[in-house]
Each structure stands twice: as structure tokens, then as C-alpha cells.
Amino acid sequence: MKKILRVALPPIFTAIALLVAWEIAVVVFKPAAYLLPSPIAILRAANIDSHQLINATLSTAMSAGLGFVIAAVVGMVCASVLSQSQFLQRGLYPLASLFQMVPLVAIAPLLVIWLGYGLSATVASAAIVAVFPVLANTLDGLRSTDPALRELFRIYNANRFTRWWKLELPSATPSIVTGLRIAAGLAVIGTVVGEFVSGYAGEDAPLGMVVLAAMRSARTDLVFAAVALSAAVGFVLFGAVSFLGWLSLRKWHASTLSR
Amino acid sequence: MRNASHGTVRNVNLHGGLGVHVRGVSHIFDGLQVIQQADLQVEPGGFLAIVGDSGGGKTTLLRLIGGLLAPTRGEIVFTASGEMNAGESARGTSSQSTQAVAQTSSISFCFQEGRLLPWRNVLDNVALPLELNGVLAHERRAAAREMLAKMQLSDSENKMPAQLSGGMRMRVAMARALVTRPKLLLLDEPFGALDEVTRLALDEELRQLWLDTGTTAILVTHSIQEAVSLAQQVVVMRGKPGRTMQSIAIDLPKDAAHRTNMQFVSLCERVYQQMTLQSKEVARVAQ
Ligand SMILES: Nc1ncnc2c1ncn2[C@@H]1O[C@H](COP(=O)(O)OP(=O)(O)OP(=O)(O)O)[C@@H](O)[C@H]1O
Ligand SMILES: [Mg+2]
């Protein structure tokens, strides 16, 4: 408990200090409200539009969560397949890295063309940005399994699948967790970008659409509120992944052992 | 016969040892000759120690015997107790049969680093070889517990490897090597990283386990004292590529106090002489 406080308190204090400074700056310099609303004004706006914002947040969280899960599964499965074959690795991995270079904003319209407006396109967009770090980190982890332990499994005549399941995968867990943590943040970014392109207005318009609509009507306070909420979605996803990672590593990995 | 000369009662019939006969084995790693014409012989249930220069090919020889590598030249023949010369053999050209022997898991390895899986507790580490052989969970755990009890590790069965001292880690590794009831135990500098006191204690435990199980043991070590005090014969490996020298028979009473014995000292002296021969002489003395 003490340790949690020691870790959590400094950033919380820093954040509060920044918000207070921001509030004071707005009060002192009085910028136009459409340029920079004060934190309190943003809160007030969020409160008024709370119903819409909650729906939007849930919708975005849903896309990001689904996209993340798909990216996690696809990334780990692909990495596992690639790790078993030098041939596939040489053939496919460079392509996968190249794929990573294609800007998402440019693909998003294609996703809309293929999947239509709505959830599928945003989920796909989230999954596409999030998949590569999972793939790369998992592959890296699987390949850097201690050769001495590989030899041990060879001595016991373990087959490929057993070796993967009982040796390579557990030993890659720290890398996989790292990849998943990066992917958690990226999934939210991918979702919001997807929503810009493929989102829909109405009752459960996602945060990306809220940002666009608020921007068009010069509701900067609402833009800020929506941005803060999408950051919160990312934060929660990241926190959940980190927690699960900590759970799976706490017993043995150096990063979690107190000593 | 051995029982009489060593004054120790040893139940060789428990699960029997595997005799090993290495004949004229050479090994070349991508053009680099590491072992030249190595010869050695251990009878079923025997204990042989290999000492020698660093980089002299001792680990390689052990891996050849264990079937992890196929010899470039020469052959390695295994004999089961009671059926001399009728065992399985491996020639330079076909490594199939060496592999087959390892596959029956009658051969176990024990390495210096222990090689425990850091994400498994002690019990599941010891049970690993059985698990990979398809033994059911409760059976393999029971077998692992029995081994752990033998090594006085019962209290630690739920600990993770990172929580163990170096000596405990090695004992877990030994328990894992023995849990399959091997007929041949190959030990590669198992206690090399330990302090002297722990090492002496583990030497004693190893000797006791060898006596109890009836397994054949081949130990690679850097310590002449360890080799002489544990083994029935010591083979020195010298030079690059490594050659085996005439094996030195150790006929000592195997009791705990023997390390101060004059006979012990003079045997160590003989091993030491072989280890410090000039390279010219090595070529002459090597068989
Ligand atoms: N897989 C390999 N591929 C190529 N060369 C190897 C390989 N394994 C060992 N060697 C080389 O073979 C030689 C003998 O190595 P080996 O490990 O058998 O020596 P060793 O007697 O066990 O040494 P040490 O006492 O230091 O453990 C060394 O020169 C080493 O570099
Ligand atoms: Mg070695």
C-alpha cells in the first residue's frame, strides 16, 4: 500500500499542480474561450453534455478494447507461427515491418470502403495500429529464449508445440507484456483516427465524432473534455494490461521481484 | 567386486547403470577440430571423472555421449549391465542410435548453471522431465516430491528458483536429473560456481545418490580433488584438439575422511602431473 502511494502520489500531485497553474493562467490572461477554456469551464461543459460524453466514451472504449484484443491475439499467433520457421520469418517479417510504415490515416478511408461506417471500421483501425508492436515484441521474446533451456527441452525430446507452450511462450512473457502495453495506447489512437474517418453522428457517436462536431461548432471546452476522456480510455486500458502483466510476472521476473 | 574393494554396499540392481565405451571419437565443429581420438570406458554403474584444460572439449565429449551431437569419427557404445557388448552403439556416420538412447530418457544431464525454468516453482521444475514424457500430474508430482525429500528440499517445493541459493539451485537441478531414474548421469561442472563448503556437501550428496541409485555417472570437473574423491577412474583431457590420456584408476576407501589420506594426495598428484605435462609429451602419452 505504502509502495503504491509512493508511486502514485508524485504524478497525481504534478497533474493537480498543472491544472491549477492552467486555471490561474486562464484567469490572469483571459484568452478567448474558443482558444483555451479553463479546466473548470471544461468540467462544466462536460457535466452539461455528460450523457452524450458517457455514451461516446463507452463507444470508443468498446472499439479500442475490441481492437486491442484482436491485435493481441493476431500479433501473438502470427509471432508464434513466424518464430517456428526461419523461412516464413525471412519472407514475411520485412513485409510486416513495411506495413507498419503505411500511415493509418491513409488506410482509414479504405477501411470505410470495405467495412462501411461504424464499429467494424474503427475496430479494424485500432487493431491495425496496435498489432505490430505485439507481433514484434512477441517474436523478439520467443526468439531470445535461452539456448541452454532449449537444449534442455531437446534432451527431454519435447516436440515443437510443447517447446513453444512450455518454454518459449513463458520465457517471452516479459516481452509480450511490453508489446501489449504499447499496443494498449496505440489502440485508442487507432480508434479515434478511425472514428474521424468512419464515425457516425447521433446518440452513440464515439469520442472522435464528438471532437469533430465540437470543433466545427467552436466548442473548444467540449473538444478538451472529449480529448481528456479518450486519454482516460487509453489510461484504463494501459493500466489493465499492466496489471495483468504484473500478475503473470510477479512470481519470477526480475522487473517485479523486490530485491 | 567393486563393493568389496570400496567397502561400500551398493545396490546395483535398483535400475541398473549403462556402460559407456567411447572408441576413437573425434569431433569437428565447422572445420575446427575439438576432440581427437578420445577413448574412455565406464562399466555399468561406474563413476568416471573427466578433468582437463578449459576449452579442451570436455563439454563436447559429454554432449557426444548424451547424443546431443553426432561424432565426426569413432563410435560410442552403450552396454546395459549384464549384457556386455550387446548394447546400442553410435557410429560417426549414424547418430540415430545415440539419439534413441537419449530418447528413452535413460540418460540425464546436469549442468553448471542448473538450467531451471524461472517461472516454475521447485516442484514443477523437478517434475519437468516426467511432464515432457507424458507422465500424469499427480504421478510426476509424487515422484518429484520423493526426489526432493531425498535431497532435503521438501520445505522448498513451492519456492521459485530466484529465491534459492546457488547450492539449493544445484540440488534442485540434481533432483530433476535423477527424477527419471537415469541409467547414465552426465554432469558438466555441476558445482563449479559454488563455494567450497557447499561444494563438499554436494559432492557427498552426489556420491550418496550414485550409491543409492546404481546409475553410471560421468562427471566433468575442474577440481582434481573432487574428481579423485568421487570417481573410480579419472581421465585427463589435454590439448587442442582435446585428447584423452591414460585413465587413472582410483582405488580409495570411499569414506568422508579420505581427503586427508596420503593415498588420496598421491593420486591427486598423479592427475596433476598429467594435467601439467608439456604439449609434446601429451601427444606421446595420449593413447
Ligand atoms: N556448438 C559449437 N560450435 C562451434 N564450436 C564449438 C561449439 N561448442 C564448443 N565449441 C568449441 O569447442 C571447443 C571445446 O569446447 P568445450 O565446451 O567442449 O570445452 P570444455 O573442455 O568444456 O571447456 P570448459 O572447461 O571451459 O568448459 C572450444 O574451442 C569451443 O569454442
Ligand atoms: Mg565445458
What characterizes the major β-sheet of chain A? none
Average pLDDT level of chain A: 92
**Dominant shape of chain B:** globular
Considering DSSP H and I runs of 4 or more, what fraction of the residues of chain B is helical?
A: 25-40%
Q: How many beta-strand elements of chain A?
A: 0
Percent of residues in β-strands of chain A: under 5%
Average of the residue pLDDT scores of chain B: 82
Number of helices, counting only DSSP H or I runs of 4 residues or more of chain B: 10
Largest interface: pair, residues per side: A-B, 21 and 21 residues
Determine the strand fraction of chain B and express it as a percent band: 15-25%
**Quaternary structure state of the chains depicted:** heterodimer
CATH topology-level name of the largest domain in chain B:
Rossmann fold
Give the class of chain B from helix and strand content and strand pairing. alpha/beta
Identify the notable features of this structure and list them briefly.
heterodimer, A: 259 residues, mainly alpha, MetI-like fold, globular, B: 287 residues, alpha/beta, Rossmann fold, 2 domains, 7-stranded mixed beta sheet, 4-stranded antiparallel beta sheet, 11 strands, 37% helix, 23% strand, disordered N terminus, binds adenosine-5'-triphosphate, binds magnesium ion
